[in-house]
Specification:
The complex is a heterodimer of chains A (281) and B (555). Chain A is an alpha/beta fold and 281 residues long. Chain A has a single domain, classed as 3-Layer(aba) Sandwich (Rossmann fold), CATH 3.40.50.300. Chain A is 32% helix and 24% strand. In chain A, helix 6 runs parallel beside helix 7. Chain A is globular and about 55 Å long. In chain B, helix 9 crosses helix 11, helix 12 packs antiparallel against helix 13 and helix 13 packs antiparallel against helix 16. Chain B is 60% helix and 13% strand. Chain B has three domains: 53 residues; 210 residues, no CATH class; 245 residues, MetI-like fold (Orthogonal Bundle). Chain B contains 16 helices and 13 strands. The chains are: A alpha/beta (281), B alpha+beta (555). The interface between A and B is medium-sized, with 29 and 25 residues.
């Protein structure tokens, strides 16, 4: 994969500042935003899942989405690589810019978008292939056949996902023989093998034991040096440990979005405080 | 389940026990268990009847001589007995053979009329090329009308000379089949060249005289070759027929049988168990590997086995890709709505259409329309002589008809297995930037292969046992030419073929000699069941291997 190209300038007019009540934007940051969401409404059929969400996600930082079940955080995450397209009867209004590019323009190449915005799922989902083939999958479908190039990327990706030492002797064995935590790190290796700009993680540790969780969290700390990470989690300690910024969602609305420290120590909104202190949710 | 109710002060009455039984739901357990037991019992009973009748079919049972009340002596094998019923006395069935002498292979005699049962050691049973079995006593062996051995030496001589005579006969037959067959094919080709030239020249045009001359010369040369071969074959057959065995029946009639006509000669009463076993397996092997004789009531069913297997495999080769592709479109690409629902209902109903209807469709569409069209375009000269090539029933059309018949099974099974592929696997692939087609090809298809194979197994089992549609699309009673052989182009999909299912029907319901055909019906049934089980076992093994390879995340 070539090195990430510099981001093009945002399309169209600069985004207007959100009106009061439309959602809460984060305070200005030194880091340029990687993903910009502007007054996004999202519907599953007649049911509205997101209400006028506006937020900017900084590049090369970890951003956590927290909130009770059904609050729309996973829906928003899946909007970023348009995975929601797979669901029948969805529609939206508003805009999402990834790297300055509106991802809903009619002629957008969704495949190209998904190569730039990788995803790790709640349930680890390695393909029923060898460890090697799992990591090489993204490159193979992109048409890379050169053996040495594939070997190189597989080794590098497994290193970056902190799985190389455990997997190097069994690269050609089935990925299904790995433990749950190893499988999830394999999925991370698979996602970073295609050199995305952004990695979306949808509750990546919810099915893992504490040790495996700790490994994945360490990994997030490493990965955010190179990638923009958005992580959805139910675990507030996890959000506190590994994210730089945290957004709290409730009933499809973005209630508060700020530095993680602020959200947990000094939240502006009483609902946020009630949630992070464990009084509801 | 312990019932604390019974320890209560009230005595357990029958009604409360029934109420308890219903409350616990035990009656449902009994009903479902009973249903399963009944189903198992029925299948086991069917198999038992088939096996019971099929297995003894090749065993050499003792040849019994017996006196009848009217003074006649009978020699044969006791095949059945019947106890007295509603005024009909108890009867015994004897297979007395010698059809050309007595006009009846099997006879029923009131058991009371039979006396003096004995099993003479020198009674000979002959399995003949035609006219069924012969029962009698060997007198002598003659070559060119002169006795070469008689008395006790005659039996040894018969056994010694029989293989040579059979070999000569086989050689003569081979000349007829291969040599003369090839000449006939060449003559046909030469004539067709002429017809083809005539067609090109138009109705009134004259054929190039040079061509006419060549073809005539070819025909004359081929005719000469044919005469030569015929003489050769005739001479061989005559030479083989010079060796004859002379028998007397138990009634005293003298019967000469050329050794070429003797398939097997044996003296069941004098055989040891070891010899009987050897005889049994020799006949069983002939059954599986041999050609049919005596309008299929004797000999083997190899062409039928071969036809069944080739047809089933052809059918699977067609139905699998066809059904799988259709199912993938329905499940992955088609917009789910009223139309797709209607298509699904139609597919499911297709599985309930009587198979003969598919046969009629196959005859009308494949044989007459497609086959007739192919003949018009590619074989105009044969068609002008009213010689169909593909425009008549054949193994290709029969296989395609059965593929249509079984496609709903494959579609339904494939759709279900696609639906069972975990969503995570699909999303994982799509999230890496795979297109929908790449995801289907690399992830969904491999994961659904075991389910697809289940569908194919069911389709094969149904297809291999189907008879009705085949009867009008290409199955025949006797087709000695196999659909695959050594003559160019090796695969003859236009040929008619034999099929075990049809063989059973033909032997069971329209045989020339129903008693003689009975063991054949059961052995063929057993063979067909075995064949279907073997094909299924193969597919199941394949499926299990693939399932281990592609099983979805166990997490």
């Amino acid at each position: 994969m070539p090195a990430p190209v510099p981001l093009p300038a945002p399309l169209g007019a600069p985004l207007a500042t959100p009106k009061p009540g439309e959602g809460v934007s984060a305070p200005a940051d030194a880091v340029p935003p990687k993903i910009r969401v502007h007054s996004l409404d999202f519907f599953y059929g007649a049911k509205q899942a997101l209400h006028s969400v506006t937020l900017d996600i900084p590049a090369k930082r970890a951003t956590a989405f927290i909130g009770p079940s059904g609050c729309g955080k996973s829906t928003l995450l899946r909007c970023f690589n348009r995975m929601n397209d797979l669901v029948d009867g969805v529609r939206h209004t508003g805009r999402i810019l990834v790297g300055g590019q509106d991802i809903h323009v009619p002629n957008l190449d969704v495949i190209e978008l998904r190569k730039r915005v990788g995803m790790v799922f709640q349930k680890s989902n390695p393909f029923p292939k060898s460890i090697y083939e799992n990591v090489a999958y993204g490159l193979r479908i992109a048409g890379v056949t050169h053996k040495a190039a594939l070997d190189n990327v597989v080794e590098k990706s497994l290193h970056r996902a902190a799985l190389w030492d455990e997997a190097k002797d069994r690269l050609h064995e089935s990925a299904l023989g790995l433990s749950g935590g190893q499988q999830q790190r394999l999925c991370i290796a698979r996602a970073i093998a295609v050199e995305p700009d952004v990695i979306l993680m949808d509750e990546p540790c919810s099915a893992l034991d504490p040790i495996a969780t700790a490994k994945v969290e360490d990994l997030i700390h490493e990965l955010k040096k190179e990638f923009t990470i958005v992580i959805v989690t139910h675990n507030m300690q996890q959000a506190a440990r590994c994210s730089d910024r945290t957004a709290f969602f409730y009933l499809g609305k973005l209630v508060e979005y700020a530095e993680t420290r602020t959200i947990f120590m000094n939240p502006a909104n009483p609902q946020t405080e009630a949630y992070v202190s464990g009084r509801f949710g | 389940m312990p019932t604390p109710a019974s320890t209560l002060t009230q005595p357990a009455r029958a009604t409360t026990r029934i109420v308890q039984l219903f409350r616990r739901g035990d009656h449902l357990l009994w009903i479902s268990g009973g249903a399963l037991a009944l189903a198992v019992l029925l299948v086991a009973g069917l198999l038992l009847v088939v096996v019971r009748n099929a297995l003894p079919a090749f065993w050499p049972f003792p040849v019994t001589a017996v006196d009848r009340a009217d003074g006649a002596k009978l020699l044969g094998v006791v095949t059945a007995t019947q106890s007295a019923y509603k005024g009909t006395p108890a009867q015994t069935q004897l297979r007395v053979g010698n059809r050309e002498l007595t006009n009846a292979d099997f006879i029923w005699v009131p058991t009371a009329q039979l006396t003096n049962f004995r099993t003479p050691a020198d009674a000979v049973q002959i399995e003949r090329q035609e006219n069924g079995d012969f029962f009698g006593f060997l007198q002598r062996v003659e070559v060119k009308g002169l006795s070469v051995a008689d008395g006790s030496a005659a039996w040894e001589k018969l056994l010694a000379l029989q293989p040579g005579a059979r070999a000569l006969a086989t050689q003569a037959k081979a000349i007829q089949l291969d040599g003369i067959g090839a000449i006939n094919a060449k003559m046909q080709t030469a004539k067709l060249r002429l017809v083809s030239a005539q067609l090109r020249a138009g109705k009134n045009g004259a054929v190039d005289p040079a061509l006419q001359a060549t073809v005539d010369a070819d025909l004359a040369r081929l005719q000469a070759e044919y005469e030569k071969l015929r003489a050769e074959s005739g001479a061989l057959a005559a030479q083989a027929a010079e060796t004859q065995a002379v028998f007397t029946t138990i009634g005293g009639e003298v019967k000469k049988i050329p050794l070429t006509a003797v398939v097997r000669a044996f003296r069941p009463n004098a055989m040891t168990t070891r010899e009987k076993l050897a005889h049994y397996f020799s006949r069983a092997a002939e059954f599986v590997y041999g050609q049919p004789r005596e309008s299929n009531t004797e000999g083997g069913v190899f062409p039928a086995i071969f036809g069944t297997v080739v047809m089933t495999i052809l059918m699977s080769l067609v139905v699998t890709p066809f059904g799988v592709v259709a199912a993938f479109y329905l499940r992955e690409y088609a917009r789910q709505g009223l139309f797709v629902r209607l298509v699904r209902i139609a597919i499911n109903n297709l599985a309930g259409v009587p198979s003969i209807v598919f046969g009629v469709f196959g005859l009308g569409f494949f044989v007459y329309f497609v086959g007739g069209g192919i003949d018009q375009i590619f074989f105009p000269e044969k068609t002008s002589l009213h010689l169909p090539t593909f425009g008549t029933g054949g193994i290709l059309w029969a296989s395609l008809t059965l593929a249509l018949l079984t496609v709903p099974v494959v579609i339904v099974a494939t759709e279900e297995s696609i639906a069972a592929v975990p969503r995570g696997a699909r999303e994982g692939s799509l999230a890496l930037g795979a297109s929908k087609f790449q995801t289907i090809l690399n992830i969904v298809l491999p994961a659904s292969v075991p389910g697809i194979l289940t569908g194919v197994i069911l389709a094969m089992a149904r297809g291999a046992g189907e008879v009705a549609p085949l009867m009008i699309t290409g199955v025949v009673k006797l087709a000695p030419d196999l659909p695959l052989d050594g003559s160019f182009p090796f695969v003859h999909l236009d040929r008619k073929f034999m099929h075990l299912g049809f063989h059973i029907f033909d032997m069971g319901f329209q045989p020339p000699n129903s008693e003689a055909a009975k063991p054949m019906v059961f052995t063929t049934t057993l063979l067909l069941i075995t064949l279907v089980v073997l094909l299924n076992l193969f597919a199941i093994r394949l499926r299990d291997r693939l399932r281990r390879k592609y099983q979805a995340s166990a997490f």
